[in-house]
Design brief:
Length: 220
Amino acid sequence: MKTSVIALFALLALQASASWVIIEGYDDAGCSGTPDSIHAYEEGECYSDGDGAIKYEDGTYKSFSANNCDGTPDETDVGDSCEDTDNGSGIVVASGLSTPVNADYPLTRASFPDDDCDHLDMITYYTTTSADDMDDVDTGCEDIDVLGISVKTEFTSTGYKSTTYTETGCTGTSSSTEVTYGECEEDYLSDYTIMYYNSGSIVIASISGLFAIIGFALMG
């Protein structure tokens, strides 16, 4: 049984080995006001949307002309204090994350053209929404009057759920799809997406479940 417990901790260590950062970007110097972009990057990972590539590594934001991060990049140091660049400014607002979300930046998603969800073939990079802007994210019931139907979207403990109803007011016959967090899934726009979401209740539930598993393993 001790072997099982050791294996469990080894698996958890592997799952937590990813290290993500969240960077706010500004069109102007000084990192002041509302950020013009918020993106998440797994350290050392190469990302491309077909127009060059980017990578964040060892406190440096690297921009490549090649789509696979080959060649000599243009480099800009970006850390936890504001760094001015030729194109504006940037700052790391979160680092050392096992997933690209936290309480202050609870939603991150990227889109892809197919079900490979390949980081070297992206439509959009991992775009992050701050907690202050979560009111702008579509959730709840919305009528589509021209079609006489309605759609309800919501964050669940496992994914982003979209339910289509045959009548307005989110009534009538329904069908649902759900984008599972952290998985490559087809979304309602017919692209493919990887989405991450953070809420305190989900994190607490996950931690409670973890200790329950460890407890049963130790008692067994």
